[in-house]
Amino acid sequence: MANVYAKRPVVIVKGRGDLLWDQDGKEYIDCTGSYGSCIVGYCHPRVVQAIKDQSEKLTSCHGFMYNDSRSELLQKITRIVPRGLQRVFLSNSGAEAVECALKLARKFTGRKEIIAMMGAYHGKTFGALSATWDKKYRDPYVPLVPGIRHVPFGNIEKLKESINAETAAVIAEPIQGESGVKVPPEGFLKELRELCDEKNVLLILDEVQTGFGRTGALFAFEHDGIVPDITCLAKGVAGGVPIGLTLSKNEIMSSLKVGEHSTTYGGNPLACAAAAATIDVLEQENLTERARAEGQYFISKLKDLQDQHRIMREVRGRGLMIGVEARFEVLDLILGSLKKGVLLLDAGRNVLRFLPPLVITRQHIDRTIEVLDEVIGEKERG
Ligand SMILES: Cc1ncc(COP(=O)(O)O)c(C=O)c1O
């Protein structure tokens, strides 16, 4: 396998809910959610059953034919999304969902430029990478897609200055995940929506990490009472099975003509069955509300911990998308926690990131806090 992942020394063989087990049977509380993709928990029985049932019926069906599993998912999706995001393109990953959004923006408006945010992460295919900010991802691959400029995240004045007659769209994450769980200033998204309306520019919100209940709302943009023109989803939508969705208004999606965009596996029946079951679980187990309540609890416990450890600089986030900025690199904390049975993510060198399955229990949050207390204490003493 290509050596492109910063590997952790662990071989995972089984998962249930918010727990994972390695090949020696050791149990881990998972605060990574496999980079946020395991929203409803590992191997949720309802998702497993849906995959089993579908796998006995049909596992592949290209988009040139209609399919019952796909249409069931599309009906469910269009029932839960806000009005104005009723048309869907189905793909297989977050980056693909972003590619489609960027192409849509150009095609619909006939303009060429996209404004993205400093600190943004939208994936690593060429278009998505061109909207991504970090030099370490971009520099080896220049020249990238032309016409994409970056402005400071959260700065509406700079955005105003940068929009011109060639601007097709502004793309942003409602909360920046990869660059350190950065929450924009209060009211920014609303101002951004107003600005895009005023300038007749499309607003693309990338909800690949924030979407599907993660922040305590189905979409993070709901906290600000706005609806974008285009949004991107992936990660948790199919309960851990690969899927990507680009959603937009009817007239925007209608600008794509037959053959102008496609992917062989988009709308795959297995992924669609898993996603339809995931939506049922999300609704029936009230996981969005759970993310809000447990997120508040988790954040309050982390803030208590911050009072005891001055090397924790800031605790921030929304729902179960949480970042802890430390005054040093966090890799030692991640490796120390792993030894003690808690899996954590980083976001940059000095931010710990928590994207647990939304089913994480109070008991496991408490245990995570205990382990963090221990590993931070060890680091401070060492
Ligand atoms: C906001 C955002 N957009 C896009 C992506 C890319 O998704 P994928 O890794 O599925 O291509 C990610 C992945 O972390 C993400 O966080």
Please tell me about this protein's structure:
The chain is an alpha/beta fold. Helices cover 38% and strands 18% of the residues. The strands form three sheets. Strands 4-10-9-8-7-5-6 form a seven-stranded mixed beta sheet, with helices on both faces. Strands 1-2-3-13 form a four-stranded mixed beta sheet. Helix 2 packs antiparallel against helix 10. The radius of gyration is 20 Å and the shape is globular. The protein starts with 11 loop residues before the first strand and ends with a helix. The relative contact order is 0.17. Pyridoxal-5'-phosphate binds next to helix 4.
- Strand line-up of the largest beta sheet: 4-10-9-8-7-5-6
**Rg (C-alpha, Å):** 20 Å
Number of helices: 13
Arithmetic mean pLDDT: 97
Uncertain segments: none
Q: How would the global form be characterised?
A: globular
Distinct compounds present: pyridoxal-5'-phosphate
How is the secondary structure organized here?
Elements: E1 12-16, E2 19-22, E3 27-30, H1 33-36, H2 45-57, H3 68-80, E4 87-91, H4 94-109, E5 113-117, H5 126-131, H6 135-138, E6 148-151, H7 156-162, E7 167-172, H8 188-199, E8 202-206, E9 230-233, E10 244-248, H9 250-253, H10 269-284, H11 287-308, E11 312-318, E12 321-326, H12 331-339, E13 342-343, E14 345-346, E15 351-354, H13 362-381
Parallel strand pairs: 3-13, 5-6, 5-7, 7-8, 8-9
Antiparallel strand pairs: 1-2, 2-3, 4-10, 9-10, 11-12, 12-15, 14-15
The structure holds pyridoxal-5'-phosphate.
Pyridoxal-5'-phosphate binds next to α4.
